[in-house]
Amino acid sequence: MSVSPQSIGAVTPQAFFFEQALPLQSGASIAEYTLMVETYGSLNADKSNAVLICHALNASHHVAGYYADDPKNIGWWDNMVGPGKPVDTNRFFVIGINNLGSCFGSTGPMHNNPNTGKPYGADFPVVTVEDWVNAQARVADQLGIQQFAAVMGGSLGGMQALAWSILYPDRLQHCVVIASTPKLSAQNIAFNDVARQAILTDPDFHGGDFYAHGVVPRNGLRVARMIGHITYLSDDDMAEKFGRDLKSGDYQFGYGVDFEIESYLRYQGDKFSDYFDANTYLLITKALDYFDPARHTNGDLSKALGNTKAQFLLASFTTDWRFSPERSREIVRALITNKRTVSYAEIDAPHGHDAFLLDDARYLNLIAAYFDRIDAQLQGTSV
């Protein structure tokens, strides 16, 4: 990824420390924790132009811009957020928060438990999407933001945006949910469990306390990432990029790398194992599995969304088989049942689930037009 000519420029993360314990859905709680935060743009006088961006599995608070001491480290949604971009930082104050339990600075399994002085490791409590949203609300409180102009996310980030609309209906005007789902299918849960088993059965995992042994369960992380990456791409996209192309031009008659797609997946796995924490992977995939707003309404999503007040934009991609368009349409139908204002776009794109991160003009124009509308509402004008 290269720096966009409209980049927000060099950015600096901030650490928000919370001494008060955060109650978790599991019944556990966590105190004395830190959340890493980045902000872009300026908060207006009445603090009404704030937009919260919720991140997906392997992303972080670093949404846009780059770091002065590491200019190649560009925000994961830099094509979406910045001056003159769909989420325009000339108009909006954009916030990225690294979720609790992650491995990019927020308190997580690799950090010391204040009660023991040793890394939490396997003792870090299981967290849910709702726990993350409650933690994010505390950041908003510290910033003095009573209501967001919008809460937005793709994939797992979209789940968080949806949870915001349910848990804090008065604290967001718009909810933007992209390439997401109201709950995981059995197939998705199965993929996540296979990935977790790859980590849990790695001899270097040591029951989650591998930090004390000075090792990393790299093989497990590699396989987990390879499994996940397959689900992010469409069959058409893989066929176009790799087909059945051979790495060395002929079969090697062994069990190493023969095909380009094998080489690509191993590269992605190796890269992932260098920067991601194994315990964090377990936590986040379990949070994905557990998300189900309709669990307490006998599976009735309409009832689960009955107290929402926001206006909604949902977008899906035709070749996304991980979170298929039908799952977004399920949310749309539930919102319509509740007579909510909802816009929906289904974009014919070949890139599978990863399409929400890529430069598709129709997609980016859709988001830009929707945020023009949000800005117009803030200004009291029409668009």
From TrEMBL:
**What's the family?**
Belongs to the AB hydrolase superfamily. MetX family.
Q: Say what the protein does.
A: Transfers a succinyl group from succinyl-CoA to L-homoserine, forming succinyl-L-homoserine.
Give the quaternary structure: Homodimer.
Highest lineage ranks of the organism?
Bacteria, Pseudomonadati, Pseudomonadota, Betaproteobacteria, Burkholderiales
* Domain (AB hydrolase-1) ranges: 49-358
Any one Gene Ontology BP term: methionine biosynthetic process
EC number of the protein: 2.3.1.46
**Gene Ontology, cellular component aspect:** cytoplasm
Q: Which organism is it from?
A: Undibacterium jejuense
The primary location reported for this protein is cytoplasm
- Official protein name in the record: Homoserine O-succinyltransferase
Q: Which residues cross the membrane?
A: none
Q: Where is this site: Important for acyl-CoA specificity?
A: 322
Q: Which GO terms describe its molecular function?
A: homoserine O-acetyltransferase activity; homoserine O-succinyltransferase activity
| Entry's localization field | Cytoplasm
Q: Where does substrate bind?
A: 225, 354
